[in-house]
Design brief:
The structure is a single chain. The chain is an alpha/beta fold and about 325 residues long. It has three domains: about 45-155, Tetrapyrrole methylase, N-terminal domain (Cobalt-precorrin-4 Transmethylase, domain 1, 3-Layer(aba) Sandwich); about 160-265, Methyltransferase, Cobalt-precorrin-4 Transmethylase, Domain 2 (2-Layer Sandwich), CATH 3.30.950; about 280-330, no CATH class. It is built from twelve helices and ten strands. The chain has helices at about 5-35, 60-70, 80-85, 100-115, 135-145, 155-165, 180-190, 205-220, 245-250, 280-285, 295-305, 310-330, and strands at about 45-50, 70-75, 95, 120, 150, 170-175, 195-200, 225-230, 235-240, 260-265. The strands form two sheets. A five-stranded parallel beta sheet has the order 3-2-4-1-5, with helices on both faces. A five-stranded mixed beta sheet has the order 6-7-10-8-9. The radius of gyration is 30 Å and the shape is globular.
């Protein structure tokens, strides 16, 4: 073989080798990229997937990708979530996960995750684990070292806050107030000196009562915004100068749909708060309203800006002084 043919043959051979090496290198790079891809759905991981709170167009591309690729979906209501998945042509095995089965089904979900399956947790609307039993499955996963990640999206509380025209720099989220009367009074009392904007969720059949309770316990002079049907065609944002104005408006019209209440923070300090100077009289205001003594003392402490133990000591001293005065009067 001549030198020229030999060189040509070697060049072709080297060129082919380079092409094969380049192709292998490209394949390795693509695999590495997929392995490092942030949006890759990985086995053994719980995905908290936010869903629309009203307008279905608000769902994100990443949320749809995760819902398509996970092994199964845990839903607050499998029928509602099933309709959402169907709209986007997604069919997945589903398991219910809500307040009354969160312990038993939480264990089932965790076991499947530990076995290597991936799961998307969704609620009827909004972000899972916010005022929602999803917080329990997140805690369970954290305790067992199971990876959890969030697919952010719509949230009724933040949407309402941004529309409220009230201060947004600092805020407190309360969710639904307790239904138990004593617990409810205590919770509202704790907010009497809260200076941050406060966000509540409320059902329509309790809205009137809640507005009246808030006005009575926190003062009627606070601005308040009521939001309903957020992101929907009939979205309604009502801004009131006071809680009394809001209560009066809803005494004349029936509440409809779920509400987000955004309440202005307290403008008063502990020294200007209206309550009896005598702590026994102060405590009696709460006790006469149905609150237990220790809960009333805690409420008094919140009103006065002191610790519960300090309030308790003041009550003991006042009661002791009252008893001594009574005995002295009886002797005379």
């Amino acid at each position: 073989m001549s030198n020229s043919k030999k060189n040509t043959s070697e060049n072709i051979s080297n060129k082919n080798s380079d092409n094969i090496s380049e192709k292998n290198s490209n394949n390795i790079s693509e695999n590495d990229f997929k392995a490092k891809e942030k949006n890759a759905v990985l086995g053994g991981t719980l995905y908290l997937v936010a869903t629309p709170i009203g307008n279905l167009a608000d769902i994100s591309e990443r949320a749809l990708k995760v819902l398509r690729e996970v092994d199964f979906v845990a839903a607050e209501d499998t029928r509602n979530s099933g309709q959402l998945l169907s709209r986007y042509g997604i069919s997945k095995p589903m398991i219910s996960y809500f307040e009354h089965n969160r312990r038993s089904h939480g264990e089932i979900i965790a076991a499947r995750l530990e076995a290597g399956e991936s799961c998307a947790l969704v609620t009827d609307a909004g972000t899972p684990a916010v005022s929602d039993p999803g917080e329990d499955i997140v805690r369970l996963c954290a305790e067992r070292g199971i990876p959890v990640t969030s697919i952010p999206g719509a949230s009724a509380s933040i949407t309402a806050l941004t529309l409220s025209a009230l201060p947004t720099r600092r805020f407190a989220f309360e969710g639904f107030l307790p239904t138990n009367k004593a617990e409810r009074r205590e919770r509202i009392s704790e907010l009497s000196l809260e200076k941050r904007t406060v966000i509540f969720y409320e059902a329509p059949h309790r809205l009137r009562g809640t507005l009246s309770e808030l006005a009575s316990a926190l003062g009627s002079d606070r601005h308040v915004t009521l939001c309903r049907e957020l992101t929907k065609l009939n979205e309604e944002i009502e801004r009131f100068e006071s809680l009394d104005d809001a209560a009066a408006a809803y005494s004349e019209k029936a509440p409809r749909g779920e509400y987000v209440i955004v309440l202005e923070g307290c403008k008063k300090s502990a020294t200007t708060r209206d309550f009896p100077e005598d702590i026994l009289s102060h405590m009696e205001l709460y006790v006469s309203g149905g609150m237990k003594k220790m809960d009333a003392i805690k409420a008094c402490a919140a009103d006065r800006g002191i610790s519960k133990s300090e309030a308790y000591e003041l009550v003991l001293r006042a009661e002791k002084g009252s008893t001594m005065t009574k005995c002295s009067a009886e002797k005379n």
